[in-house]
Amino acid sequence: MSSEIDSSTLLSRASQLIDLARKAGADAADAVVVRSRSQSVSVRLGKVEGTESSESDDFSLRVFIGKRVASVSANPGFDLQALAERAVAMAKVSPEDPFACLADEASLAKSYPDLQLLDTTEVSSEMLREAGLAAEAAALAVKGVTNSSGAGASAGMGGLVLATSHGFEGSYMASRFGHSVSVIAGEGTGMERDYDFDSRLYYAELDDPAEIGRRARERVVKRINPRQVPTGKDVTVIFDPRVARGFVGHIAGAINGAAVARKSSFLRDRMGQQVLKSGLSISDDPLIVRGPSSRPFDGEGVSGERLVMIEDGVLKHWFLSTSTGRELGLQTNGRGVRGGTAVSPSSTNLALEPGDITPEELIRNVGNGFYVTELIGHGVNMITGEYSRGATGFWVENGELTFPVSEVTIASNLKEMFMRLTPANDIDRKFGVAAPTFAIEGMTLAGR
């Protein structure tokens, strides 16, 4: 295991690659290695369906000549000098990019904390197999659950090795373990599917596979014999945490500096203005110890800090990398992420901060409405904010969940939805995007 984690050899190769690029004519350069180790086992109906194991160290070199930039990638075993020379040759004939550059030396992390992201627990294929089988068996152990879509377990680690020509060298690794199961209830055209899962950095913190299976079977059995409901134009829709997290992802996309620079965000002209109800905030923190999306530095060597992106409903920050910040006339806030050979801004541990009432109180306060457990389709226009998604869930009458509902569409505009959102207090911060149950008033529901 220690040889898998030790990054000193990779750091040395990255530094050599930068030196060769400078000798070949680059003004500046950085080299990154994206590391990945994973194994997984999938089962269905008590039998192993597949096992997978993979590992990779993917090198990328980015070079700058004046305002020209080029990037190349390679797998281990490549010729360092040939790769450096190819990158420089590509940069010389590339069009100028006025915003591409390394992070300012003053913004580079001089030191960074141990965020306890790596669990070195050895998990065997047999342990993964047993976990998958246990989750599936628990999910099938009730009348009404008629079939399995499969279960699985996984273990792995990944990380980043980064060196730059202006003195930054750093690396980190993070582990990830997971259990999941998906099952079917009902027969024929009345079949319904649902699932449950858990994912953690530390193996010992994973939910028990049998508990995951139990939750999946409870979810799917409740969905049997769904109904349609009448169309309504002023419906309060309650988002279960599973779908609430995806909704908060839309907010993250709208305040991403890259989208703002491209003018493809409906919030691009709203900095310093009210975009959520007063009292609501969205935070982003890359430095949470054992956080699911924590990182000691970003893809450019910049250490980020906790930011309240939206504070008391007012938009305060964009997610910024160095180049995106320059394009907008701003400084990076340490949110640069390597994606292949490119760097783009992204969130880390993002959270819609919770409210003061329980989900049960929220539902009682709604009285009548629609509780969404699953969304279908991709009907979100991030330029205009128009929102239209297929949905399933449960009808709420007199403050209680009653019968299952399917084949409906919910619609509104994200700008209006943000201003009508009321959160509960049940946030679960084990996810990189965390959100509590919340209700949104005044949506259109298209039913029968």
UniProtKB/TrEMBL annotation:
One BP term from GO: proteolysis
Protein name as annotated: Modulator protein
Signal peptide: none
One Pfam family of this chain: PmbA_TldD_3rd
Domain Metalloprotease TldD/E N-terminal: 29-91
MF GO annotations: metallopeptidase activity
Domain of life: Bacteria
Domain Metalloprotease TldD/E central span(s) in chain numbering: 122-223
Organism the protein comes from: Rhizobium leguminosarum bv. trifolii
Family, as annotated: Belongs to the peptidase U62 family.
Ranges of residues in domain Metalloprotease TldD/E C-terminal: 234-447
InterPro entries according to UniProt: Metalloprtase-TldD/E_C, Metalloprtase-TldD/E_cen_dom, Metalloprtase-TldD/E_N, PmbA, TldD/PmbA_N, TldD/PmbA_sf
Gene Ontology cellular component annotations, sorted alphabetically: cytosol
